[in-house]
Design brief:
241 residues; alpha/beta; Rossmann fold; 5-stranded parallel β-sheet
């Protein structure tokens, strides 16, 4: 596996852009992967604004930017069992967590196919009230990657304030990350209609949800079993007969 290239799940927003800068200190080239999960996600190409800014500063040889779909994975992990899952878990967190797990599953497949042993995303401790960014979730997801020999890192998780990330971008000559609306940057990253509905109170009124840790970890364990089968099926299909 390659030690000088890594994957970054990339939205084009502040956190993933700051993560890219930090990752470039260790890796020669980053594979920026932007995902669509196929259900109410708009303006996917907005992520190009961020990657183009990075390319302008650091050079095109430092990046590969791929925009792709995880709709089929999301369907297998969640859509097919959505009614049962809502009855079982009785919480809105399952939509967002299933979406993110679909992306992590695709990350692992991409890493295995391209010989990468490090994957990353822009998870932030500032927004640890989002279920997929809870410390317990990050720990479980990191262990999931390890089962496939891949390190999962979160470069800006303990970086601190939004201002510290903006300062980092400014120091590198990246000045625009869109307007700030609480912890979001509209116009720089794809818009998830469902996610924005779920997190409306968090974004605009600082009313953050509290999720049952045991249920969250059970959901991750259950869904990563499906993810493993998806990964194994993909790896088998890629092997020459």
């Amino acid at each position: 596996m390659s030690n000088n290239e890594a994957l970054l799940m990339y939205s084009g927003g502040l956190d993933s852009s700051a993560s890219a800068i930090i990752m470039l200190e260790q890796f020669e080239r980053l594979h920026l992967i932007t995902y669509s999960y196929g259900y109410g996600q708009l303006f996917l190409k907005w992520a190009r604004k961020g990657s183009n800014g990075l390319i302008e500063v650091f050079g095109p040889h430092r990046f590969i930017h791929v925009i792709t779909s995880v709709k089929d994975i999301f369907q297998r992990i969640f859509v097919r069992s959505a009614v049962r899952d809502y009855k079982d878990y009785k919480s809105r967190f399952i939509w967002c967590l299933a979406c993110k797990l679909s992306m992590h599953t695709a990350n692992i497949i991409y890493c295995l196919e391209h010989g990468l042993n490090t994957a990353s995303d822009g998870s932030s401790g500032e927004t640890a009230y989002y279920v997929e960014q809870m410390p317990q979730s990050i720990k479980a997801i990191r262990q999931f990657y390890r089962e496939f020999g891949i390190d999962f890192v979160t470069p800006v998780y303990n970086m601190g304030s939004r201002e510290a990330k903006l300062k980092l971008l400014a120091q590198k000559g990246i000045r625009s990350v869109g307007i700030a609306v609480r912890d979001r940057n509209p116009g720089t990253q794809p818009l998830c209609v469902v996610g924005n509905m779920i997190h409306f109170a968090s974004t605009f009124f600082d009313k953050h949800p509290s999720y049952n840790e045991e249920l969250v970890l059970r959901f991750i364990r259950e869904k990563t079993q499906i993810s493993k089968r998806i990964i194994e099926d993909r790896v088998k299909s890629d092997k020459p007969e």
